[in-house]
Amino acid sequence: MFVFRAAVVGAGTMGGEIAQAIASADVPVVLRDVDSAPLEQGLATARRATERQLRGLVKRERMTEAQAATELEAIIGRIRATTGYEGFGDVDLAIEAVPERMDVKHEVFAELDAATPGHAILASNTSGLSISELAAGTTRPDRVVGMHFFLPASVMRLVEVVEGEATSEETVQAVVGFAQQLRKQPIRCLDQAGFVVNRILAAGLGELWRAQAEEGLSFEHVDETVREAKAAPMGPFELSDWIGLDTLLHLAEHLREFYGERFHISAELSERVAAGDLGRKSGRGFYEHGG
Ligand SMILES: NC(=O)c1ccc[n+]([C@@H]2O[C@H](COP(=O)([O-])OP(=O)(O)OC[C@H]3O[C@@H](n4cnc5c(N)ncnc54)[C@H](O)[C@@H]3O)[C@@H](O)[C@H]2O)c1
To answer: Whose CA is nearest to atom 15 of ligand 1?
Structure first.
């Protein structure tokens, strides 16, 4: 199945970026949120991401400033914002990116089930909730799938395509094809806690936190060493501040519940979260973040 029109529900941290990735691949997309303020923020995120991409193309002399200005409006023009469900009647795929709570997602999936045509695929950008459980609340469990983008979705190439128990092969193939249409690299994963990437991330970060605490290393030193060795674009503690310490704690707890003690829960991480130091979003995590 080819995706001619798409929808994104939730215009927060991920939704605006996902809508941008879709619109910049020439596919019209309707972006829904409950209120006009997050919608405007989502559109502003999409605009900034597009400007960043086009600046790169102008710098590499792949297009002129004038062409970039026209292209910017064309891409943003393909995103239609709504607080209702107008425009959902002819989409082939809807991607849900609302907060990571099963009750909220269930409600949105029921609404999508009613608002979209019967053939449409309903995808969730969940980082770890069960796709099978989400699917069970719809009339089309075979057309429910995980489509897990990474932040920032306008840049990051990897997309996890998560197969629930009832997801059909046709649905998986359609979503793999759509991810490729967005110039992304899809990988297929089973519906298990952490899928693939977050399981690797949490295992790696857990070992680093454990070693740092046991050996009394400073986190600045660990970050500097990783950066200098060019082992990663940023150090693990800088990355943690970007992702959000509460998000990482929630992930570690979830994985420990599922896989047992091999997933480490850092005492320091728990203390920082309890103190409200959540990383960039709160202004302080392992580092101070001004402005
Ligand atoms: N933030 C990340 O780094 C990241 C990365 C990958 C996946 N995810 C996943 O993506 C999803 C969204 O995360 P986020 O960080 O963008 O959350 P967010 O809180 O930044 O945004 C969620 C948006 O959904 C809107 N919303 C709430 N209820 C709604 C409803 N009923 N209908 C329409 N919109 C509604 C909110 O107003 C908000 O704008 C989560 O499942 C999360 O686990 C997040």
So the answer is: 13
Q: How far apart are CA 249 and CA 235, in angstroms?
A: 18
Distance CA 175, CA 118 (A): 16
Q: Which atom of ligand 1 is nearest to the CA of 124?
A: 41
Does residue 100 register a pLDDT over 90? no
Give the percent of the chain with pLDDT over 90: 88
Query: Mean of the pLDDT values across residues 52-80?
Result: 97
- pLDDT tens, residue by residue, 235-259: 999 999 988 899 899 889 989 999 9
**Distance from C-alpha of 93 to C-alpha of 143, rounded to nearest angstrom:** 10
Name the nearest CA neighbour of 175 among 201, 136, 154, 149: 149
CATH class for the region spanning 6-190: alpha beta
Residue 127's pLDDT band (boundaries 50, 70, 90)?
confident
Tell me the catalytic residues. 148
Q: Is 126 in the pocket of ligand 1 (CB under 6 A)?
A: yes
Q: How far is the CA of 125 from the centre of ligand 1 (A)?
A: 8
Residue 12 Cα to ligand 1 midpoint, Å, equals 5
Topology of the domain comprising 197-281: N-(1-d-carboxylethyl)-l-norvaline Dehydrogenase; domain 2 (1.10.1040)
